[in-house]
Amino acid sequence: xxxxxxxxxxxxxxxxxxxGPQRPNPYELDFVADEGFNFVRIPCDYRFWTKDFDYxxxxxxxxxxxxxYIEECNKRGLHACLNIHRAPGYCINWPEREKHNLWRxxxxxxxxxxxxxxxxxxxxxxxxxxxxFDLVNEPSNQPPxxxxxxxxHERVIRATINxxxxxxxxxxxxxxxxxxxxxxxxxxxxxxxxHSGRGYFPMQVSHYKAEWVKAEFEKPQYPGExxxxxNVDIQSLRxxxxxxxxxxxxxxxxxxxxFGCYNKIENDIAMRWLTDLITVFNENNWGYxxxxxxxxxxxxxxxxPGTVYEDYHGMKVDxxxxxxxxxxxx
Length: 330
Fold this sequence. Notes:
TIM Barrel, eight-stranded parallel barrel, 12 strands, 330 residues, globular, 31% helix, alpha/beta, 18% strand
């Protein structure tokens, strides 16, 4: 995968009640393509197509939505990266809702491998220039409900990659870092896959007042004191990504699959941090994908205090952020 820059789109991100998957908004995808971006990550929740933890009998009508997602991206020249965000037996969000443990239970692993083998066969005619597979979002050890050692994770990832490449040797595969995506995986530097990092460091800035974070942060400054006694600046960001550079030096490619800043912090602080973050990505020639397009982390109507929006084709766009994101395409 050449350098790819774009957005996460949440069309099938999280199943709630009877709500079904969304259709792509063609005007949003037109906007992404017209502005020169070339990458769309599609995080999916397997529960949209599964009932009662029956992993190996997906609802064909729902899978056809994914066909449509890929088609709508590809016809605009956008690379589609299909990600299982909630996998059989694992999700970083509320893992206790899963019946099995992906990393240690055969039922979940068999279902997980079945899904990727199904997608591999289904999309065998689409080249890796247009489609990649991001196996599982943000693996992490989640005791006591879903424990996962690094050895557990490596075993599952290697076996899944082997299963995919046994069907389609050329399929491009993406693996997320450990500990919620942020920790590099030198033990997997030898596999034929792109290593996907995260851009949420420090979380005191990126997730300030995020309701789902189980910690209260004092209001940070950036650059400056993020918590009392701890100062963070662009050099801190460079230091944070050194393990990823080491994995890259060992032969792996690196991409930042998610990053962004929640909308409770003032936009000027967010922009100073995002500017340094993207500077570091660009210094390393890494592609990246903003979480998300429209919404609390996005480039459209994110709602951070102090933002001045541009009305662009009916969308409230943060133009300075948009131009900052586009800097990686130059």
